[in-house]
């Protein structure tokens, strides 16, 4: 439905936007002096950068494409998803952020989640650290592929390219600036991109409702779908509601969000960052909800519901303004995928390569070169998966989100609140969580029924049970000295 006549204006805006992104990347390149800068920004980030960065890297392209599309089709019964995410994000900041920031600095200045687990449990054999890195790589590869899929769909919708051409272009842009600038670049850029995303998600539904004629005509158009469309309990089972709410559990185990806490200037900036992030999330999530609802009232039917935000921006705004608003979709995709790729390359470099080759001393430039090559390798695999997507963007995100949340969420929570937790219980719990998600998804595909329950729930629950049972079986083992310092 996007008119070809507007493509020139949008392309101009996109080129301008991408040039700015790469300029920021090159500035960050010259400010990156060591591995801590490349992976965590030197732990120097202020509250606004931490807060908006955590939100922007979390939400990805699904916030402006998949969620409005799901609301467009399903109506109010999908409101349970943003509600669960809002609660989960708030609890993550409240329960995890400050402690994790303090713990990771005390525990040998850990730069990644795998290295934090290594230091926290004093794992001399480095087994836990390496297994954690492998799990990060597996699920983040699927996560990054979801972002690449969204990029391909965006280019296909806007510029009438083939999906594959759009996929190639978006992948090249994201991989390029992430390789150049590292964590500093994506943190600075995420602040700008998060602001742009918020403006877009508020402006599009507000202006669309105005174009429809106001609130009453808007509600009248929605009622044409039947009263059930605005009923949050219609057409969804208790299992479905529970599954959507359970997305909130995933926050405790997302390495690309947790590293934002670790990169804060000090634990003292966490409360301010929390207010910024949670406020941003609530406005952005419900802006996406109203984008889907207003799109349904405006169009009634779309061949590709995931493009509803793009279609509305093109119809109700001037082409130049629409170009800036639609750039928010690219922003969302870039923010999330760059964070995921960087976290994956950090795991591959810091938590696998340097552990396997402990005697191989490398200078900073050599280490960063290896990190960039690792990032390219992961991007190639994610690109291959995205070139043959199996399902929607939301489906890919759902799988990766569940895998990471069920694998690491219980470990992060218990490790910062229970000093008697052991390395073996952490290792077994993580494997139980990861395997449960993988097996559950396979069973759901073949049998359905009870297995429609979101795999995050059994994975998270069985992880906790495994940690507690193994910990009880091992009894009162000697508590690592570092754990005594942490608590």
Q: What would you report as the Rg, rounded to the nearest angstrom?
A: 22 Å
Which regions are unreliable across 5 or more consecutive residues at pLDDT < 50? 1-5
How much strand?
under 5%
Write the element-wise H/E pattern from the N-terminal end onward: HHHHHHHHHHHHHHHHHHH
- The overall pLDDT, averaged over residues, is 84
CA-to-CA gap between the ends? Answer: 58 Å
Tally of individual helices: 19
Helix share of residues?
A: over 70%
Provide a descriptive summary of the structure in words.
The radius of gyration is 22 Å and the shape is globular. The protein is built from 19 helices and no strands. 76% of the residues lie in helices and 0% in strands. The N and C termini lie far apart (58 Å). The protein has helices at 7-31, 35-40, 47-59, 66-74, 80-106, 113-121, 127-159, 163-212, 215-223, 238-245, 255-262, 270-299, 308-316, 319-356, 364-386, 393-417, 423-447, 456-474, 481-486. Mean pLDDT is 84; it is low at 1-5. It is mostly helical.
């Amino acid at each position: 439905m996007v008119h070809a006549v507007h493509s020139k204006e949008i392309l101009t805006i996109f080129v301008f936007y991408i040039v700015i992104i790469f300029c920021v990347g090159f500035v960050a390149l010259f400010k990156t002096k060591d591995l801590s800068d490349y992976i965590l920004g030197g732990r120097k980030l202020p509250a606004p950068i931490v807060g908006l960065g955590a939100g922007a890297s979390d939400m990805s392209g699904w916030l402006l494409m998949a969620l409005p599309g799901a609301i467009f089709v399903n109506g109010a019964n999908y409101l349970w998803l943003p509600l669960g995410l809002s609660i989960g994000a708030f609890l993550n900041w409240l329960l995890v952020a400050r402690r994790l920031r303090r713990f990771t600095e005390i525990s040998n200045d850990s730069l990644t989640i795998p290295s934090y687990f290594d230091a926290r449990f004093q794992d001399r054999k480095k087994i836990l650290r390496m297994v954690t890195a492998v799990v990060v790589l597996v699920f983040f590869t699927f996560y990054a592929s979801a972002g690449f899929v969204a990029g391909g769909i965006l280019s296909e919708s806007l510029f009438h390219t083939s999906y594959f051409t759009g996929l190639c272009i978006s992948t090249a842009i994201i991989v390029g600036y992430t390789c150049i600038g590292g964590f500093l670049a994506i943190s600075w850029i995420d602040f700008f991109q998060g602001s742009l995303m918020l403006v877009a998600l508020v402006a599009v539904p507000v202006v669309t409702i105005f174009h429809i004629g106001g609130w009453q005509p808007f509600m009248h158009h929605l009622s044409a779908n039947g009263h059930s469309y605005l009923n949050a309990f219609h057409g969804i089972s208790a299992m479905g509601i529970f599954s959507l709410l359970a997305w909130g559990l995933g926050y405790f185990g997302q390495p690309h969000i947790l590293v934002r806490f670790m990169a804060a200037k000090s634990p003292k900036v966490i409360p301010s960052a929390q207010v910024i992030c949670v406020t941003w999330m609530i406005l952005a999530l419900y802006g996406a909800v109203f984008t889907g609802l207003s799109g349904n009232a405006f169009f009634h039917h779309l061949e590709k519901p995931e493009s509803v935000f793009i279609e509305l921006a093109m119809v109700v705004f001037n082409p130049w303004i629409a170009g800036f608003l639609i750039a928010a979709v690219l922003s969302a995709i870039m923010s999330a995928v760059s964070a995921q790729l960087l976290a994956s390359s950090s795991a591959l470099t810091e938590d696998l390569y340097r552990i396997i080759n402990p005697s191989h001393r490398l200078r900073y430039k050599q280490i960063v070169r290896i990190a960039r090559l690792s990032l390219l390798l992961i991007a190639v695999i994610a690109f291959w998966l995205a070139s043959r997507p199996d399902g929607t963007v939301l489906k890919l995100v759902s799988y990766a989100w569940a895998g990471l949340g069920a694998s690491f969420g219980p470990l992060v929570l218990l490790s910062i609140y229970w000093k008697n937790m052991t390395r073996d219980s952490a290792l077994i719990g993580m494997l139980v969580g990861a395997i449960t998600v993988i097996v559950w998804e396979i069973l759901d595909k073949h049998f359905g029924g009870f297995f429609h329950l979101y795999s995050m729930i059994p994975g998270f629950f069985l992880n906790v049970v495994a940690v507690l049972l193994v910990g009880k079986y091992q009894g009162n083992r000697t508590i690592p000295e570092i754990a005594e310092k942490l608590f």
